[in-house]
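Here is one chain, start to finish.
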Amino acid sequence: MSSVERDAWKATVEVQKHFNDLQLRTRQLLLTGFAALSSALLYSAKEQLSIRVGSIDVALAAAVAIFGVCALFAFYIWDFGYLALLKGAVRHGIAIEKGEKVGDSAFGLAQAIGEASDKVGYLPAFFFCREGSLSQSQRRLAWTYRIFAFVILFFGAVGQIALPGRPTPTEDFESSGCLSQFCVIQMQAEQGDVGLTTKRLTCRCLE
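Its structure:
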């Protein structure tokens, strides 16, 4: 290996370290966000918090879950892209070590990274398409994000299912003279005077 090729190899290794460091930082940020999101999901589901969307009660956990999956997919594209760039740099370094890149061609790192980036298929990898075209590291990364997405959606669904039904007037309220008080509570919910509330409503008879 000539001095030119050795310098190109050293530069390639530094680029590999850079992309690897970017991936580690991305995943650390992802784990921190996932922990915070999980806490928010568990608390909102436990407290049965909800928001009004038109005439429908939507569990706050479900809304948080939708936001969480969107944020997770953004992290996935970010992470998957860095992995592709890292693989391009690794392939170029291997080519130099095998003697396939000699002389000035050893400095084709930018071209190798660009070609690797153009071959990235974010959506197919995430949605179980073209599994055979993925490397082992890409499949492992895709499955990691799929599991994260499943956990988030599971807690969101649990929060929505556990949400109590909306109370409605009954004959008991009418006969006991509580209908007016109940109607006041119902009107507040319909008009959105209480944007975030639990469903532990108490009706009392008016004197």
